[in-house]
């Protein structure tokens, strides 16, 4: 398979099986030798996912979707992405190679694909995109978001905020990392910048394997918040209840304010990820348990603090996982709500009196964040929402207080650096 065919095959699998790109592409990339080819495949896959609405809009000017085979349409979207965004690749090369793939899919339509892509290439600079006056088209074609999601966020956050959220989630964010030992070795060979929100967090244009080899872990500042909110908590036992691949637990452990941090997750596969990461990062192998945290697995009242970073729709991480826009439906956006409720109930039974639960989700959906904690504390007498900054550093308080809503928690709106996130602190009185 050539590079364009592989990109097409990955996208097809993502949309058909509703999978994340990271679950699909490793298998395909293993069969590519050249690093530049690997990068091109990922560029096409992520680019098409990020701008699919825009690409559909352009393609619809030159071809009729209803009269085109699904596979051919998708293949042409990959071609349109390259013609619009990969300006250093000559148009004739993009068209030639895309037509080559079309021939394999259906030889009869290769002439059609060739003509359409040539047309796109000739006319791409004269296309104007919908403006905000036509809100539905603006959301779908200019911002490249599914209409249901755009409209839901307008209802939840107001129109101006929702548009800003969508624009930020279309940005590629800098690679942000924390170093568990020292950042100095990295600084010798690379330019390393401080990030805007959290002390000790950095970003830089550095290959990922170099970052990891330097014992540093890639983690958005929004995600770093969950352990940071426990930085000044002193206790014996902490539990990271849904911990794989381990980032939040590793950071909490590095603060050394608990005697033991236990890492829990639900399957062996997920546990293996924690082990793999701790080995790669040369960290001490953590204490790990495997249990379904919707059910009682630990002794009641046994942990001083619990991080419950619950499974969720992931809509706050669309910058890094743009395919989430196209693999979620209105129904499955809320499909984890019952699991989240059960996990929080279980965390509350498991935490000691006076102990704290940090509940977080990398989601923009209030049903998975605000509603879960509000419903819980209003129905459980001795559950109390506390200020999320009670055990944080001053730096964290100063950086994030603008996101704090009393009686709810921190609703992190995405920006150039931050993913969308929700985090809140509950004490067992
Ligand atoms: C958002 S991820 C956690 C990310 C992790 N905290 C980190 O910072 O690297 C959610 C995790 O919940 C786990 N999970 C899902 N259902 C679970 C359950 N019933 N019990 C325990 N863990 C579960 C998933 O396997 C996944 O690893």
Q: How would you describe this protein?
A:
The protein has three domains: 3-126, NusB-like (N-utilizing Substance Protein B Homolog, Chain A, Orthogonal Bundle); 136-169, no CATH class; 220-428, Rossmann fold (3-Layer(aba) Sandwich). With 429 residues, the chain is α/β, with parallel strands linked by helices. The mean pLDDT is 96. The protein starts with a helix and ends with a strand. The strands form two sheets. Strands 5, 6, 7, 8, 9, 10, 11, 12 and 13 form a nine-stranded mixed sheet that branches. A four-stranded antiparallel sheet has the order 2-3-1-4. Helices cover 47% and strands 15% of the residues. Bound molecules: S-adenosylmethionine. S-adenosylmethionine (SAM) binds at residues 223, 242-248, 265-266, 270, 292-294, 309, 311, 339. Residues 223, 242-248, 265-266, 270, 292-294, 309, 311, 339 line the site of S-adenosylmethionine.
Short summary:
This protein has about 425 residues and is an alpha/beta fold.
Classify the helix fraction into a percent range: 40-55%
Spell out which ligands are present: S-adenosylmethionine
Give the amount of beta strand, in percent.
15-25%
CATH T-level topology of the largest domain: Rossmann fold
The coarse overall form would be globular
Number of domains: 3
Secondary structure class reads: alpha/beta
Low-pLDDT residue spans: none
Report the strand count: 13
What is the annotated CATH architecture of the largest domain?
A: 3-Layer(aba) Sandwich
| Total number of helices | 18
End-to-end span in angstroms? 61 Å
Q: How would you name the CATH homologous superfamily of the largest domain?
A: Vaccinia Virus protein VP39
- What Rg do the Cα atoms give? 23 Å
Q: Given this structure, which CATH class of the largest domain is correct?
A: Alpha Beta
Mean pLDDT: 96
Q: Characterize the largest beta sheet: strand count, sense, and whether it forms a barrel.
A: 9 strands, mixed
């Amino acid at each position: 398979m050539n590079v364009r065919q592989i990109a097409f095959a990955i996208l097809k699998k993502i949309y058909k099986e509703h999978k994340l790109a990271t679950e699909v592409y490793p298998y395909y990339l293993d069969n590519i030798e050249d690093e530049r080819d690997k990068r091109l495949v990922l560029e096409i896959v992520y680019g098409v996912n990020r701008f699919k609405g825009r690409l559909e809009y352009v393609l619809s000017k030159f071809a009729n979707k209803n009269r085109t085979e699904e596979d051919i349409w998708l293949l042409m979207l990959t071609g349109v992405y390259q013609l619009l965004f990969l300006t250093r690749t000559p148009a004739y090369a993009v068209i030639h190679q895309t037509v080559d793939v079309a021939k394999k899919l259906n030889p009869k339509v290769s002439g059609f694909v060739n003509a359409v892509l040539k047309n796109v290439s000739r006319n791409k600079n004269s296309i104007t995109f919908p403006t905000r006056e036509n809100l539905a088209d603006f959301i779908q074609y200019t911002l490249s978001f599914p209409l249901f999601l755009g409209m839901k966020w307008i209802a939840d956050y107001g129109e101006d905020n929702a548009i800003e959220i969508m624009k930020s989630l279309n940005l590629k964010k800098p690679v942000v990392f924390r170093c568990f030992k020292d950042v100095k070795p990295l600084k010798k060979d690379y330019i390393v910048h401080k990030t805007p929100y959290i002390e000790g967090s950095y970003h830089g244009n550095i290959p990922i394997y170099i970052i990891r080899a330097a014992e540093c872990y890639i983690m958005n500042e929004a995600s770093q918040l969950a352990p940071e909110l426990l930085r000044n908590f002193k206790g014996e036992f902490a539990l990271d209840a849904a911990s794989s691949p381990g980032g939040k637990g590793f950071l909490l452990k590095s603060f050394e304010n608990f005697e033991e941090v236990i890492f829990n997750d639900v399957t062996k596969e997920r546990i293996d990820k924690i082990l793999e990461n701790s080995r790669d990062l040369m960290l001490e192998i953590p204490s790990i348990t495997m249990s379904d945290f919707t059910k009682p697995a630990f002794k009641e009242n046994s942990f001083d603090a619990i991080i419950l970073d619950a499974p969720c729709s992931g809509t706050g991480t669309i910058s890094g996982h743009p395919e989430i826009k196209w693999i979620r439906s209105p129904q499955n956006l809320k499909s984890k709500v019952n699991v989240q409720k059960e996990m929080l109930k279980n965390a509350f039974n498991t935490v000691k009196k006076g102990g704290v639960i940090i509940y977080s989700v990398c989601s923009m959906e209030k049903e998975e964040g605000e509603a879960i904690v509000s419903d819980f504390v209003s129905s459980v007498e001795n559950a109390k929402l506390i200020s999320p900054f009670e055990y944080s550093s001053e730096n964290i308080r100063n950086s994030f207080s603008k996101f704090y809503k009393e009686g709810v928690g921190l609703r992190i709106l995405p920006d150039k650096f931050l993913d969308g996130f929700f985090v809140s602190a509950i004490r067992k009185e």
